[in-house]
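FIELD: query
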Amino acid sequence: MSLRILYQDLSLVVVDKPAGFHVHPPEDMRHKIPNGINCLHLLSRQINTYLYPVHRLDRATSGVLVFALKPEVATALSKLFSERTIEKTYFTVVRGWVEPGASTINYPLKEFNNSGEAVFRESVTHYEAIAWVELPTPVGKYSTARYSLVRVSPETGRMHQIRRHF
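FIELD: result
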């Protein structure tokens, strides 16, 4: 399998990451993944060079993924992500109606620190519903299924932030 390369120069390569693929192997070696769904492995073999992941997308998420070809480029780009200089935009389908207009979810999310203690971390998601559909499919006690297409810009980058906020 080859990943679709959207852009490449001497410093970085940008690919279209399919849903269901991991950006890189899990840090916890007890959770091994096949090389066939590992973007880092696939792209490294495809362009025959060592790569440095710059950011991550959830396995279930498709989208634009950036890899650096040099460690100093990876460090610089990762810093831009951590300083929130780079704006990220996602389009997601959520179940139910999301009211028209732009809004913000500012709700701390629970994470666990290195000691295993639960801590609540600032989590901010800006969003705007842009389309709605109602399908004649019963869901639970409802006679129809309603969905909203939402443009989302997370200000923070917590694990599964968009999913957890919605």
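FIELD: remark
The longest strand covers residues 124-135.
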